[in-house]
Structures are given as C-alpha cells and as structure tokens.
Amino acid sequence: MKTAILETIKDGLVDSIANLTKEQIQLESHLKNDLGIDSLSSMFFLTYLEDNIEGFEVNADTIEARHFNTLQSIYDYVQSELGVLAS
Length: 87
Prior knowledge:
This is Acyl carrier protein. By secondary structure, the chain is an all-alpha fold. It is built from three helices and no strands.
C-alpha cells in the first residue's frame, strides 16, 4: 500500500506543478524549493490527493505548513490521516 500511496502523491505533484516529471521527485525533495509548488498548485495537489486516495480527506485542523516540506512529510501526513502508522 505504501508504494501505491507514494505513486499517487507523485502523480498528484506532476499533475499540479508545471514542467515536473516523476523522475525529479525523491523522498527528500523539498516541495517548494526543489519542485516549485506554490499556494495555488498546492490546492490542486491536495484536491488531487482527496480524489485519488480512498479514505483521505484534508483536515483543516491538522494540516500544517511543515507537512509540505518534503515528499516524505506529505506521505506521513496522508498516512496519519488514514489512521495508518507510517512505516
């Protein structure tokens, strides 16, 4: 399941950020500094995740800027919202 969620997150980033390829995305990739996500593309990205990860919804009470640091941090956030312990 981890791989499927990571792939969906990568797909969402590619879908939301212009001129980004999957090959550019690493677990340590900083979403803003390395990949170029901004406030508008982050909204598209979160909507993509809600539409494509079963059971996932963005929780305004729990989401914080730190969740947008890296691919790993957004993955950990998705996992926590799904109630699955991050491995």
